[in-house]
Amino acid sequence: MPLPPVLAQLRFPVIAAPLFTISNPALVIAQCTAGIVGSFPALNARPESLLSEWIAEIKEALAAWDRDHPDRPAAPFAVNQIVHRSNARLEHDLAVCVEHRVPIVITSLGARPEVNEAVTGYGGIIMHDVINDRFAHKAIEKGATGLVAVAAGAGGHAGTLSPFALIQEIRAWFDGPLALSGAIASGAAVLAAQAMGADFAYIGSAFIATQEANAADGYKRALVDGTADGIVYTNLITGVHGNYLKSSLVAAGLDPDNLPVSDATKMDFGAGRKAWKDIWGSGQGIGAIDGVVPARALVERLHTEYQIARRRLGLGD
Question: What is the sign of the dihedral through the CA atoms of 17, 22, 215 and 212?
C-alpha cells in the first residue's frame, strides 16, 4: 500500500517520538525543518490553553521555512494523545487538534474509534502505539491509519517483544504505514528497521540529549554517559511498564533490583507524576549518544550514517 502523501515527503524515514515533559515547539520545529517528522505530547502544553498556541507556533514556523526553502520543504508534525481514561484533557486536546487540522496524531494507551474518526474526518492520519500483534489488530479495526510497533528496548512505555518477531507478525496481515520503536539511535538502525519491514524508524531517547529538549542538564549527561545495561524495566513510575535510567532510580533512593510493582489501574500522567520528576526514561540505544548537540546536528548524523549503511549494502544514496 502506498504511504499517505503526508508521510511520503520526508528526507529519510524517521519519526521523532513524542517525549513526555521534554518535547516542545523548538524541538519539533528543528526536527521538521531537518526533514523528519517532529512530535510532542499534547499533555506537555500546560495549562491546556497553551496547546493551541504551541500548534499555531509550529505551523507558522514551518510555513515560513517552506517559503524560504522551497527546495527543502519541512516534514509534517505530529501531536501525541494519551487516550487512556485517566487523561481528563483528551476531549479538549482532541478538539484543538481538529481545529488546527494537525496532519498526524499519534495515539497511545488504548484505541478509541471516536478519536480516529475525528482525525481522519478532516484528512489527518492516526498512528497508534502497540506492543503486540493483538493490540495492532484492535487498533486497525477501530480505525487507525498506521501503527507504531513498540518493541523491546524502547524508551518510556515499552513492550518486551523482539522487533524481528513484532514486525514479522504485523506485516503478515497489515500493509499500511508502520514505524518501529526500540533502541534506534543510529542511521544504520534506521535502515535495519526498513529491512525488517517497517516504513519508518521511531526515535526518542537520542533527541533528549539535544539542546532544544526541555530536559535537565543532568538527564542529558546521563544519556551521554549511559549504556544499554543501565536501563531498568518497571511499571512503578506510571503504572505502565517502561524503561528508565538506573542511575536516576538510585538517585531517587530506590533499589533498581527490588522495585515494588505499581497498581496498573492507577495510571498517572498528571500532576502526581511530579513525585517522579527526577526519574528519567530512556531506551537501550543510548550507547550511540556521544554528546549534547542541536537537534539538526543529530538528524544530520543519522542521515549520514543512513546513507553510509545503504552504500555498504550496495543500495546507493
Answer: positive
